[in-house]
Amino acid sequence: MDYIEYSLCPIPFEPWNEILVSALSEVGFESFMEEDLKVKAYISSKEENVLLINAVLEKFDRNNEMSFKWTKETIKHKNWNEVWEANFEPVYIENSLSIVAPFHDESLRKNHVIEIDPKMSFGTGHHQTTFLMCQQIFKLDLKDKRILDMGTGTGVLAILAEQLGARECIAIDIEPWSVENTIYNATRNGCKKIKAIEGGKSQIPNILFDCIFANINKNVLKEQLKTYSDSLSLDGTLLLSGFFTSDVQELTAHAEKYNLKTESIHEKESWALIKLRKLISL
Questions:
Q1: 18: Cβ–Cβ under 8 A, 6 or more apart, which residues?
Q2: Cα–Cα dist 34/126, whole Å
């Protein structure tokens, strides 16, 4: 599948860089990067709604407090993979975890190691939200726990969960290449307890999970929170990420409706993670 890259140059760059990212994440953009005072936003050609995106960009264009220029180009599937590999540096999650690619040598593999071949999938550890998820998963007791990883991407969170002792990991993603990539990466890391499934919340098995990881975007999380609560065992843990710190209050308030209590909030460069627990009683 082709991806579309929107390159935007807001003036002044700050704080409009973060404001642009927040607005574009609401209309389907999956990932962002900053380079030479530009915001580069990526969306799959299948998900690109030109009318909706242009409406957002026109709103900024009419804003008297800033000015910006933008361009867009199509990135072919093959070129997208080449971009990933050319820019894939090892990721170190504090002193706990190294996320490396197959072409990284032993000198770059430190402490706990996960080897990821990202292909088209999100979840290499480079993004702040994946970093936050890995950081918090390391602090959980996952021995003999049943795990659900929603929006699994590369499968990195499910792989980490199995390596930390989980007895079963269900990894779900709407994109078929993510499911394929998860299976591939799980095999590379010697995992045997991960089941990758293509689909959305309707594909969640009718069983209870001890922990649920969901690193998606705010709107999807809000829409699926009730399902997560229904699928979570009493006193189970839910980790949510994929949104900005400005969205935390909205999400925590929404979670309360489904018997999910906020235990802690963690931040990294304007991105956030919420750790919630399902209450035993209201």
A1: 244, 270
A2: 13
Which DSSP helix (H) or strand (E) runs through 224?
Answer: helix 218-231
Structure tokens of 198?
């293509």
Output the six-digit token pair for 66. 């800033």
Say whether pLDDT at 199 is over 60: yes
Backbone φ and ψ for 25, nearest 5 degrees, come out as -65, -20
Six-digit token pair at 260? 């999910």
Query: Does residue 122 register a pLDDT over 60?
Result: no
Q: Is 182 exposed, middle or buried (0-12, 13-18, 19+ CB in 10 A)?
A: buried
Domains of the chain, start order: 3-75 (3.30.70.980), 138-278 (3.40.50.150)
Q: What are phi and psi of 77, to 5 degrees?
A: -50, -50
Which residues make beta-bridge pairs with 235? none
Instruction: Evaluate whether 116 touches 184 at the Cβ level (below 8 Å).
Output: no
